[in-house]
């Protein structure tokens, strides 16, 4: 990402943090993912990942990072499309300050 | 510092840039949640309770619940259930009904009262005899001992009761002076 975009991203991030919207978004995503059993699936993936490892390799400081790195691509693909779209819409509307268009708000 | 929303909108007039930023923020939030899940799993595996609820299919088959007429959930017939459970005494190797095991053990191993002395004597004297008859005798004698012991104890108790009160009265007499 170029510096201008990075600056905008930082500003947007800061705005979400300050208004508490980021926590709100996180809670929303969390609840949607719980509804769709996403977390169970990710937990299964983690278990499969751990099964191939010995305990010593899990004791290193970077074990969790390695695990996240390993499962992140698959886990991102596991997020249901409608959940991702809802989140993206909400984030966009919160950054721009406009409410999300009513016709695309699900449920 | 509060950033007016207009500044972001001005900067992000380009839709693709905007959607790019939105996606990065979305990915950030998703990563945080993923990290949370990973932490949980990592902790579980470190503490050793991650695979605790998993059992091999072989074991699952063993404990499958059977739903048939005339059988209990383990697939055993009803008549089989009536069979009494037997315990083997570690002292005299006899097998006894479970309900009789605790009283037998008390007598056989000579716990409590004066039966212990008699039991150990008997064991020492009857080492040449067969195991079975030895145990039988031990058990029976234990019964009589127990009764005898009960009878013997009554006067003892009385004595004990009298004892302390007598001592106590002596004390009070002494301290009274």
Would you kindly provide a written description of the structure presented here, covering whatever features stand out?
- The complex is a heterodimer of chains A (107) and B (177).
- Chain A is built from six helices and no strands.
- Chain A is mainly α.
- Chain A has two domains: 51 residues, no CATH class; 41 residues, no CATH class.
- Among the domains of chain B are: 38 residues; 39 residues, no CATH class.
- Chain B has seven helices and two strands, in the order ααααββααα.
- A two-stranded antiparallel ribbon of chain B has the order 1-2.
- In chain B, a hairpin with a 6-residue loop joins strand 1 and strand 2.
- In chain B, helix 6 runs antiparallel to helix 7.
- Classes of the chains: A mainly alpha (107), B mainly alpha (177).
- Chains A and B meet through helix 1, helix 2, helix 3, helix 5 and helix 6 of A and helix 1 and helix 2 of B.
- Chain B: Component of some SAGA transcription coactivator-HAT complexes. Within the SAGA complex, participates to a subcomplex of SAGA called the DUB module (deubiquitination module).
- Chain B: Belongs to the SGF11 family.
- Chain B: GO terms for molecular function: transcription coactivator activity; zinc ion binding.
Strand content of chain B: under 5%
Q: What sort of overall outline of chain B do the alpha carbons produce when their principal axes are compared?
A: elongated
| SSE ordering of chain A | HHHHHH
- How many independent structural domains of chain A? 2
Provide the structure class of chain B: mainly alpha
Determine Rg of chain A (CA atoms, Å): 17 Å
Percent helix range of chain B: 55-70%
Give the termini distance of chain B in whole angstroms.
92 Å
Query: What's the tally of helices of chain A?
Result: 6
CA-based shape of chain A:
globular
Let me know the average pLDDT of chain A: 79
Query: What helical percentage do the residues of chain A reach?
Result: over 70%
H/E series of chain B: HHHHEEHHH
Pfam family, one (chain B): Sgf11
Subcellular location (chain B): Nucleus
GO molecular function (chain B): transcription coactivator activity; zinc ion binding
Organism (chain B): Tetranychus urticae (Two-spotted spider mite)
């Amino acid at each position: 990402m170029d510096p201008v975009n990075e600056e905008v991203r930082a500003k947007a991030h800061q705005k979400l943090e300050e208004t508490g919207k980021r926590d709100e978004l996180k809670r929303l995503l969390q609840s949607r993912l719980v509804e769709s059993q996403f977390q169970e699936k990710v937990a299964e993936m983690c278990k499969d990942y751990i099964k191939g490892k010995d305990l010593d390799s899990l004791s290193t400081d970077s074990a969790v990072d390695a695990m996240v790195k390993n499962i992140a691509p698959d886990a991102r693909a596991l997020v249901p499309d409608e959940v991702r779209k809802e989140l993206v819409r909400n984030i966009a509307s919160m950054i721009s300050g406009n409410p999300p268009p009513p016709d695309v708000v699900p449920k | 510092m509060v950033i007016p929303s207009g500044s972001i909108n001005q900067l992000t007039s380009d839709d693709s840039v905007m959607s790019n930023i939105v996606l990065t923020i979305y990915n950030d939030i998703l990563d945080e949640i993923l990290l949370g899940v990973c932490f949980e799993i990592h902790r579980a595996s470190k503490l050793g309770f991650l695979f605790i609820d998993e059992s091999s299919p072989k074991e699952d088959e063993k404990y499958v619940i059977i739903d048939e007429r005339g059988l209990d959930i383990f697939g055993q017939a009803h008549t089989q259930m009536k069979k009494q459970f037997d315990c083997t005494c570690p002292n005299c190797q006899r097998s006894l009904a479970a309900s009789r095991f605790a009283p037998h053990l008390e007598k056989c191993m000579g716990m409590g009262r004066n039966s212990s002395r008699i039991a150990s004597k008997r064991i020492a004297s009857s080492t040449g005899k067969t195991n079975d008859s030895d145990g039988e005798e031990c058990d029976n004698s234990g019964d009589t001992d127990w009764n005898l012991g009960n009878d013997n104890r009554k006067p003892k108790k009385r004595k004990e009761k009298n004892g302390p009160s007598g001592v106590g009265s002596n004390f009070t007499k002494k301290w009274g002076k």
